[in-house]
Design a protein that fits this description.
The chain contains 14 helices and 7 strands. The protein has helices spanning about 5-25, 30-35, 40-50, 55-65, 70-85, 90, 100-105, 105-110, 130-145, 150-160, 175-180, 185-200, 245-260, 265-280; strands at about 85-90, 115-120, 170-175, 205-210, 225, 230-235, 240-245. Helix 4 packs antiparallel against helix 5 (about 70-85) and helix 9 (about 130-145) packs across helix 10. InterPro entries: Cro/C1-type_HTH, DUF5753, Lambda_DNA-bd_dom_sf.
């Protein structure tokens, strides 16, 4: 599978190529652009080879130097989109985790079909407050970010209200191991597993469990979410990766379909969840 970060790299290369095209259309050499912008010549080289992402001010100066101010809005928009494709958690969580939950609300509200695969934790859309708070507190402690786990859990639950408004469809897959991992004390896990049994009855929700014993046609991979066919959001230990390249999205669609056909649903999924509850004593 293609590296998930390649979308960000390709987006930045495309922006650099646009800068080169603007310079050449203006009939200017790199040295001339550097002089007009008041930069060292090495900066132009870094921008044109995508080694340094341009700031908004860089773009304005470049376009002014090349008499192409009409290109400024599109380039700034493209740069900001590229910046969102691969963002390290340490940057996202500098002020805590609550803001991350809130800033994705518009994306959740406009998505018609959610396809979610989780190999490590219960999907955020299905988390109870206790489970979310325990998980987010662990993340706060590991990353050393401000501990706003309680407020972040509340924001996550508000974001998850889309699952009950009837305007969206959800196909959510979890590995059976997810049901057994102890995120929080037994009482928290019991409440979380009980909520999974409850939410399975919603007509717009299909919850599948991939059993321990499933014959693997797709190996367990990183947790990811498909928002319609527009974006894939992948969570790694170090970063949030947002994939918008159609070829990479297609890879995740194919992977999801294979995982979906390994899962059990309905009574068999309920039995797996109930068995997990029983292990809590």
């Amino acid at each position: 599978m293609t590296s998930p970060s390649s979308s960000a790299h390709e987006a930045r290369k495309a922006i650099a190529a646009r800068l080169v095209d603007i310079r050449k259309t203006a009939g200017l050499r790199a040295l001339e652009v550097a002089a007009r912008c008041g930069w060292h010549k090495s900066k132009v080289s870094r921008l044109e080879h995508a080694r340094t992402p341009p700031t908004d001010e860089d773009i304005r100066k470049w376009c002014l130097a090349c008499d192409a101010l009409d290109r400024v809005p599109e380039l700034i928009a493209a740069t900001r989109n590229a910046d969102l494709l691969y963002v390290e958690w340490k940057h996202l969580q500098r002020a805590g985790i609550k803001g991350i939950q809130e800033q994705t609300v518009p994306l959740y509200e406009r998505t018609g079909l959610f396809r979610v695969y989780c190999s490590n934790v219960v999907p955020g859309l299905l988390q109870t407050h206790g489970y979310a708070e325990a998980l987010l507190c662990t993340i706060n402690q590991f990353d050393g970010s401000p501990n706003d786990a309680t407020e972040a859990a509340e924001a996550r639950l508000r974001r998850s209200e889309v699952i009950r408004d009837g305007r969206h469809r959800f196909v959510l897959l979890v590995e059976e191991t997810v049901l057994r991992y102890r995120i929080g004390p037994p009482a928290v896990m019991a409440g979380q597993l009980g909520y999974l049994l409850e939410v399975m009855s919603l007509p717009t929700v299909a919850l599948g469990v991939i059993p321990f014993t499933a014959q693997r046609k797709m190996w367990p991979i990183e947790t990811f979410m498909l928002f319609d066919v527009d974006r894939v959001q992948v969570e790694t230990l170090s970063a949030e990766i947002n994939i918008t390249s159609s070829t990479e999205i297609e890879l995740y669609v194919r992977a999801f379909d294979r995982l979906r056909h390994m899962a059990v649903y309905g009574p068999k999924a309920r039995a797996a969840i109930t068995a997990a509850v029983d292990t809590l004593g």
